[in-house]
Amino acid sequence: MSEEQTLHMVTDYVKAHIGLSSADRILVGLSGGADSVALLDILLRLGYDCIACHCNFRLRGAEAERDRDFAGETARQQGVPFYETAFDTQAYAARHKLSVEMACRELRYRWFEELRCRLGADWIAVAHHRDDSVETMLLNLVRGTGIAGLCGIRPVNGRVIRPLLPLTRSDIETYLASRSLSYMTDSTNRETRYTRNKIRLQLLPLLQSLNPAVYDTLERTMQHLGEVNRVYADAIARQQAETVFEDGNIRHIRIESLLRQPAPKALLFEMVRQYGFGPAQVDDIWAAVCSGEPGKRFLSGEYTLVRDRDELLVAPAAGGRYKEVYWIEEDTPALEAPLPMTFSRFPRSGNETLPHEKNIASLDAGKLRFPLTLRRWKKGDRFVPFGMKGSRKVSDYFSDRKYSLLDKENAWLLCSGDDIVWLVGERISEKFKITADTVFIYQIICEK
User: Which is it for the CA torsion 101, 104, 110, 113, positive or negative?
Assistant: First the structure.
């Protein structure tokens, strides 16, 4: 393929799948390898305003320093601004329990986005090509995925674009040779300790021995699956609308409705994978759905999924983010965690109109003993709900109100000494209500 053909192919692909404007400013990931050098050169020849940026992951010693110097010199020769950063990738991977590959990905894209915002760029361009997309499809297939994971790499993902996806690795090397452009070779690309390299160096050659045109075949398959995925996504969206509702930060999946759908397990997978639950966990969640036994709990890292009576509940995992007890002094104006709350004290006039919203507690200040405490509920807790005479167990109150397991976990109690003053966001205690004898009102607003 000639230089002109390569430029035309990228131009047509960008118009059809990305839609860049000639005025767009593009941040270009420049590793110094063949793909990124070609990407920068092609975008500049097509007239785009580019900024080069380079990540040093400190994984390859002197070779990484060589690549950084080369990338900086390439940017200088091309006349574009150059930005660089370095990461302690091994420490990050260990701290977050990630593979080195995944740590590199997270660090790279986080820094790219920060830099894009700081410099006012419109897009982040990375140099993935057709062969990378095929490898990604196989990588996802090996790890387990849905239809979307078998469609290869998308041309646009948020602010990240991939203009070289129509080109093969061979096309890029031919283009670089015709332009007399040099590039660096990453020695780790030949190491099979990385899963992607195993696919490139071992699996794909084996597949080529069975089908010499395997890259073209898999590309056509990905295109076909991309069309299938559109139909599938439309059906999932309609079925999800019948099955799910949101209540604050909790997603409720109605089990009865889920089981009425044509492929309930597939629908379940699509609904929970966005929260980090993988295929193996979905198998366990599905078993919990079928067992009919409530109480099963699953964690994805950032989210908790609970099998309640008639629903699956998904919510952000508390995960030890909050202390057991928070202290509120008489002069405390506000609290940010665990709940955003504001506190005020004012004299009772007798003519004021007090709000009746559940998230606002208006109390007799004279009956409160400071500091107040804000804590989780525990077994055996009792209080006298407003409007009642006898005390009730908090657990019974939850049952009467049909609290879900997650609702119970997220419940907080405001206490004065040993007395419960307010089941936050729900009901105050009869003991602390405002009466004709009240002199000062203590009001709490909880922005749940």
Answer: negative
The percentage of the chain sitting over the pLDDT mark of 90, rounded to a whole number, equals 61
3-class SS of residue 53: strand
Q: Would you state the pLDDT for residue 318?
A: 60
How many beta carbons lie within 10 A of that of residue 29, not counting itself?
A: 23
Q: CA 330 from chain center: how many Å? A: 39
Q: For 103, how many CA atoms within 13 A lie in the half-sphere containing its CB?
A: 20
H or E stretch at 76: helix 62-78
Interhelix angle 34-45/62-78, nearest 10 degrees: 10
State how far the Cα of 34 lies from the Cα of 55, in Å rounded to an integer: 16
**Contact between residue 270 and residue 237 where contact means Cβ atoms under 8 Å apart:** no
CB 145 within 8 A of CB 282: no
Residue 301 to residues 273, 274, 277, 352: CA-CA distances in angstroms? 12, 12, 9, 47
The model's pTM: 0.66
Contact 257, 271 (CB under 8 A): no
What angle (nearest 5°) sits at the alpha carbon of residue 156, between those of residues 155 and 161?
80
**Which H helix or E strand runs over 343?**
strand 341-347
Question: In angstroms, rounded to a whole number, what is the distance separating the alpha carbons of residues 413 and 415?
Answer: 6
Residue 376 and residue 324 in contact, taking contact as beta carbons nearer than 8 Å:
yes
Burial class (CB in 10 A: 0-12, 13-18, 19+), 143: exposed
